[in-house]
Amino acid sequence: MINEPTIILSGTDPDLPQNVPPGLARYSNLREMARGGSAILRAGFDCITGRTVAIKCLLPETRHDRREQRRILREARVTAQLQHPNTVPVYDIGNDKVEGIYFVMKRISGENFFEILKRIARGEQDTIDVFPAQRRVEILINACQALAYSHARGVIHRDVKPENIWVGNFGEVILLDWGVAKVWGQADDNEPLNRSVLTTEETETQQLKTLTGGGQRPGTPLYMSPEQVNGNRGIDERSDIFSAGVTLYEALALREPFRGADINETFDNIQNKEIPPPSERSPDRKISQAADDVVMKAIQKRPANRYQFMRDFIEAMRTIT
C-alpha cells in the first residue's frame, strides 16, 4: 500500500506560479505507479492546486495507435462524466505535444481487490482479519453502486473484475477502467471483447494461473458474460451483473468459477458448463445457502434468468452480509 501524502504548507500558498507550462509539463515529480499493455499510470505533483494526482497516458509504442487513443479518451470522458462516490474524480484531460492524450485523476492510495483476495487465499491472517467475508461483500456492493449509477446514465462497464475494484486505505471503494465501456445510443467504436483483443498464443499459459498460484491471468475472459463471449454488441446491464456475480463468487469462495486450461476452455465453460455453487467449491469457507442463491442467480447463462437490474442484485447482496 502507498501512504497518503501529507499536506504541504507551501502548496496552500495563495500566489500562483508564473508562466505555467501547458500539457504534462505542468506536473512535476512524475513517478510510475503501474503499467499495462497499452498505458502507464504515474503519480505527479500539480503546481497549481498543490496536490498529488494520478496521470494516465499511453505507452510510447501505443501512443499513435488510433484505437488506443479512442479507448483512453473514452475512458477519460466516461469517468469524468460519471460523478459518483465510487468512481474516481477526473481533474483534467489533454493532448500533450510529446506524450499524446492523457487524463489526470484524484490519487487514491490503496490496492486492487484481487491483491486482497490473493493474500486471503494464501492464508495471510492479517488480511483475513481485516477483510472477512462480510467486508468483501460490502466492497463489491460499493463497486456495484457505481455500476447502478452508470447504467442509469446509459453506460455499461463491460470489464468488471477484482483488478478493476480499487480499495483505498481509508475505506474508499472505486470502480476503475472504463476504457471498453459501452454507451447506449452511440456508435460502438470498440471491437467486440473476443479472444483476439484479449490475449495472444504466446501469453496464454502464464495468463491462466489460478488465484492461489499467483501471477497473471486473463482477467477479462474469466468474468465475461456469455453474450460477450459470443461477440454480441447488443449487451445491456445484465452483462455487468453476470461479471459482478462472478466477482462475488470469487470473493466468497476464493476460486474462479469458469477457469479452464486455456482461453477456449474458459469461454466454453462460460457458455455451456454448469458449475457448483460457491459453498460446494469451497466447503471450508462456510458459505451460506442465501449467498449461494444470490451468486447463482447473478451468473445464469441466459440474461432473462439473472437479476434484471443492478439495484436488485445490490439488494440481494445486502441480505447475505
TrEMBL record:
Pfam families: Pkinase (PF00069). GO terms for molecular function: ATP binding; protein serine/threonine kinase activity. Signal peptide: none annotated. The keyword Transferase applies. Residues 27-320 form the Protein kinase domain. Residues 268-288 are annotated as: Disordered. Keywords: ATP-binding, Kinase, Nucleotide-binding, Transferase. Its EC number is 2.7.11.1. It comes from the Bacteria. The keyword Hydrolase does not apply. InterPro entries: Kinase-like_dom_sf (IPR011009), Prot_kinase_dom (IPR000719). This is Serine/threonine-protein kinase PknD. It comes from Novipirellula herctigrandis. The lineage of its organism: Bacteria, Pseudomonadati, Planctomycetota, Planctomycetia, Pirellulales. The gene is pknD_1.
